[in-house]
Each structure stands twice: as structure tokens, then as C-alpha cells.
Specification:
mainly beta; disordered N terminus
């Protein structure tokens, strides 16, 4: 029997193994608590992002991206899911959004936006957002948008 991935990335061969394993070595999971916990974006935010019009719809499960970093000198958390993005203070206070991803990426409302991602580079204080943009027409070229945002001054590239 090959290795089986278990709780928190530990590996088991199926045999009884005593003692801590893998990434859990030396940790007491009973003491683990999240640093922050707040309600983020949900299906209703996706539906309402387009003004409640027929363009707004619910996608489950969400393709979720979550980044924490600095924007305009303040610590923020940015969440980006299937069709919407939002900016929060570290305590969970909503600062901006939800905003639909067509607006966020500067795309026509007639196009579909999917599979958003975000990465924050703390060395350069730069945010990177990407998404696949497509139509329902098989003969039209699709593309990927990449939005680069300088966290120090908010300029885009």
C-alpha cells in the first residue's frame, strides 16, 4: 500500500505509527487557533455584484484567492472569488467592494471571468491578480488578464 496523505499533510502507510509525524511534529493541534476570523465573500455577493441583473450568478464552490499585504501604507486583506473581489482591514472591516471582476479587470460585461488568483510580494509590496477571460463562443480567442498593483502608491502596470 502506498503512502496516504492524512491530516495536515502527514503521511501514513496504513500501519500504526506512534508519535508526531510530518508537519505536525512538535505541535499540539488542540492549541491551534486562527489569527483572525471574519466573514468573507459569499454566493450572494456574486449574485449582487452585477446589480442583481441577469449577469450576476452563483458559482459553487468558489475559486478563492486570499492575500494579505500593504496597500497605500495600510495593512489589508484582499479576497477574490469567482466573480467578485473585496478589500478588508485585518480585523475584517470591509473597506472596498464587493466589486465584480469584469470591472476589477477592466473587461466588458459581455465576457466571462473565471479562476481568479492573487499573490502578494512583500519584498516589493506588489500585488498580482490574474483571471481567465472567455466568451461562450468557441471560435473567439480567450485570454488571461494579469493585473499588477504597486501597494505603495496604488499604480497599476
Amino acid at each position: 500500500m502506498g503512502p496516504v496523505v492524512g491530516h495536515r499533510g502527514t503521511r501514513s502507510t496504513g500501519a500504526d505509527q506512534s508519535g508526531p509525524q510530518g508537519s505536525d511534529a512538535g505541535l499540539n493541534n488542540n492549541d491551534a487557533k486562527p489569527a483572525r476570523n471574519f466573514t468573507g465573500l459569499n454566493s450572494l455577493d456574486q449574485l449582487n455584484a452585477y446589480g442583481g441583473s441577469a449577469n450576476g450568478f452563483v458559482l459553487e464552490p468558489p475559486d478563492q484567492g486570499l492575500c494579505a499585504g500593504t496597500l497605500f501604507g495600510s495593512s489589508v486583506v484582499i479576497e477574490i472569488i469567482n466573480d467578485v473581489a473585496a478589500v478588508y482591514a485585518p480585523n475584517g472591516t470591509l473597506l472596498l467592494g464587493p466589486v465584480d471582476l469584469n470591472t476589477f479587470f477592466g473587461e466588458s460585461p459581455a465576457l466571462n471571468v473565471s479562476d481568479p488568483r492573487c499573490v502578494y510580494d512583500s519584498t516589493t509590496q506588489t500585488w498580482f491578480f490574474s483571471a481567465v477571460i472567455y466568451t461562450n463562443d468557441l471560435f473567439t480567442d480567450n485570454h488571461t488578464d494579469v493585473l499588477v498593483l504597486n501597494g505603495g502608491n496604488g499604480s497599476t502596470a
